[in-house]
Design goal:
With about 190 residues, the protein is α+β, with helices and mostly antiparallel strands. It has two domains: about 5-105, Aspartate Aminotransferase, domain 1 (Alpha-Beta Complex), CATH 3.90.1150; about 125-185, no CATH class. The protein is built from eight helices and five strands. The chain has helices at about 5-15, 20-30, 70-75, 90-105, 125-135, 135-145, 145-155, 160-175, and strands at about 35-40, 45-50, 50-60, 65, 75-80. Strands 1-2-3-4-5 form a five-stranded antiparallel beta sheet. Strand 3 (about 50-60) and strand 4 form a beta hairpin. The longest helix is centred in the middle third of the chain and has 16 residues, at about 90-105. The two termini are about 45 Å apart.
Amino acid sequence: MSRDPRVDAYIAKAPEYAKPILAYVREVVHAAVPDVEETIKWGAPHFDYKGMMLGMAAFKEHAGVNFWKGKLIGKDGYGDIRSVGDLPPKKELTAIIRKLAQLNAEGVKVARPKKAPKPEAKTPPDLAAALKKNKKAAAAWDGFPPSHRREYLHWITEAKAEETRKRRLDQAIEWIAEGKSRNWKYMKK
């Protein structure tokens, strides 16, 4: 059994109501999957077995257990746990944990739906006119990916004062003509 001292520390610092809940879940996980590995991810205890299996966390007034492939077993986890009695019986929880481990062992993946691409942003008239006057900037603009164009459009259109908008528009045309994205200063070279 692989025990991570950081999980011990997390449980020790948890609110009093949560300590028995976290200790119980930990013991059930280790009993169900002896080769499980403990770790801390996103500041909370997680249990891995051939991939992420489940995580648990304690909050001010409740605890939660999250199953990484819960959608495949019809149960995402348990939230709003205020005592060990809010969890299913040990036999049922053990069966769920073993099923999660089996899914990982078989290499089963959760299908993630592809997001629809964002629609092309509309170029405001003042930017369109400025691009029309600068052929180099217009060519670079046409070659930019939609995300780069959106960054510039957002930066220019979010200006509250007309003076600020004009200044940003002038700066944008200069940078676009140089082929620079809006956040070029922060990109790795």
